[in-house]
Amino acid sequence: MTEAIHIPQDTAPQQKQPIIVRFFAQLFSVVFHPLFIPFYVIGFLIKYHPSYFSGFSFYAKFEIMRSVFVNTIIFPAFALLVMKGLGFVKSILLHTQQDRIGPYLANMIFYFWMARVFFNFKPELTPVLAVFMTGVFLTTALALIANIFSKISMHAIGCGGMLGIFIIIMNSNSMLMTWPLSIALLITGLVCTSRLIVSNHTSKEIYLGLVVGLICQFAAAIAIL
Question: Is 133 inside a domain boundary?
Answer without folding.
Answer: yes
